[in-house]
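Handout, tutorial session.
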Amino acid sequence: MAETRVHPSSIVSPAARIGQGVTVGPFCQVGDDVELGNGVELVSHVAVAGRTVIGADTKIYPFASIGHQPQDLKYGGEPSRLIIGQRTVIREGATINPGTQGGGMETRIGDDCLLMSSSHVAHDCQVGNHVIIASFSGVAGHCVVGDYAIMGGQSGVHQFVRIGAHAFIGAHSLVDADVIPYGMAVGNRAKLAGLNLVGLKRRNFDREAIHQLRAAYRMIFASEGTLRERVEDAARLFEGAPLVQDVVAFVGKSSDRALCLPRNGSSEG
């Protein structure tokens, strides 16, 4: 393994757990309860505090604030945690907060994510793998963001909202309702604008699976009957279609927020 290097201008607590091959650049601060996995790089001016674990080969750019006290007035100093996965890239000025007593005590960021400059992930969020959060975008407390979801620049997500896997949030959008897996949401307040077909094709999803998903989307968001009835019909008709079943399971799961729907009842996929 490569040698661990700490710039002499940085302050690293002797109690911090530092892996092999770690690089701590100039003017960084690493607190007592921090764990940096093998190959982590703090470029410069990075402040890591609290009970924070950063996975191997993650790279954090200048002026990021990682693991400091949640921006929640109910926080009472409880020993909550922040877990960041492997190979994640956190760009300049990004902020990520640990959990709280009211939200499970843990914020988690998955593997291979990209948090662009000045993005924010609040307390108690659960962010999956391969997620991209673009510059000046924020995810409020208690949100769940599925694998491969993408948030466009200057977008925001209301607390307790769920963003499904492979969903796409358009730039400048404010999302205050749950977005289905593979969905695309745009606007203030965001509405479904169809499926993330570009993302599905880029990730080499099977053509037939995409056709099934489009047909199920039109069925679920049609105007006839109730949403529950339409979801049940889609579950039966597309029993062997895993992408459709992902959407069915997501809609059927209990949530604190409403479901993001198409504007004007449009069901175009």
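The second record follows below. Compare its token runs with those of the first.
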Amino acid sequence: MELNISLSPDILFYIGSFPLTNTFIWTVAISLFLIFIFVFVGQRLKDKPSKLQNFIELLLEESYSFVESITGPGKKAKRLFPLVATMFIFILASNLAVYIPGQSAITLDSGGGPLSVFRAVMSDYGLVLVMTLITVVTIQVVAIAVSGPFKYIGRFINFKNPLSFFLGLMDLIGEIAKIVSLSFRLFGNIFAGEVLGMVMLFLVPFFVPLPFLFLGLLTAVVQAFVFAVLTLVFISMASEVELEEAK
């Protein structure tokens, strides 16, 4: 029996020339599930809420309160909340979905051996990179909207003196580094947790892997929170560039 660990997701089959991977299947399934839950609850709001409505209302209320604690109450919180909450809920649901029992037993014969139909969504660096790019592009758009295009460019390209040029270059490198730091933190932790769980389950099945599974469960929750919070903080900081320059 072999332990097959692949950095890239497995291609299950093709629709025309479009490859369908196991992480893509999970992404679609989780997205449809979340859409169904929120639409279902939204169309059946009651004065005496059900347990599901109570849970969703509590989740959204606490999330919005947390956003306000970072940005302050007002328009900024209302504008940032949909993006931050969507990222948090989707990443959290994707990470927790890995722990649904029995999914590893669902395989597809590709001719080269059985392939698991489901795999941790956030272990696909392509998807994590896309989410990171959404965050980084939003940061730049907000910074341009607040400070204007010329002041924005002036942050990175400043020939007044060698020190200003050097600091501008460091700012540019820092913006690019956000892509690496955000994406690698989420991808690396989830992928490492998945591999560690597989290795321990392969080497010593039954009770020994349980502590590692609980550790992976904690990591799944923490990484969803960290990604959403960093997104919130970075965008909030970008919207305050003009205020800092004015002081």
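Points raised in discussion: The CA atoms of residues 104 and 116 lie 6 Å apart.
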